[in-house]
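re: that chain from earlier
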Amino acid sequence: MKKILILVDSITIANAMQRFLTAAGYEVETQYESKTFFDGRATAFDPDLLILDINMPHFDGFNILEMATELKTCPNAKIVMCSTKIFEQDIKRADALGVENFLKKPFNAEKLLSKVADVIGTP
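^ sequence. v structure.
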C-alpha cells in the first residue's frame, strides 16, 4: 500500500484529504504543525508522497522541504505542494527543490486523487 504524509496547518483540509485518500486505498498520516515535522514520526512512517502546504506558521513548505533534504527526512518521498495561491516564483523555487506537482486549494476529491496518481500511481 502506498503511503502519504499530509502536512497542512488546516485540520479541516487535512481531514478532507485523509478521507479522500484513505477511501481510495492509500495509507495516510497527517501532521498539522510544521515545527513538529522533524520529531521522527515522518521518518518512521517513510511515506511515498509528502503533501506540503506552502503557507504555514513557523516553517513554510519550502523551509520544510529544504530542511528535510538536508536532514534526509523522508528521502524517497515525492512532493506535492498545495496552496490557495501559486505564484511563478513558487513554481521556480519548487522546481529547484524537486517538487513533482502542485495542488491548488480549494480542491475536490477527483482533483486530489488525480494529482496523487500522477505522482505515485494508484494504491
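The radius of gyration is 13 Å.
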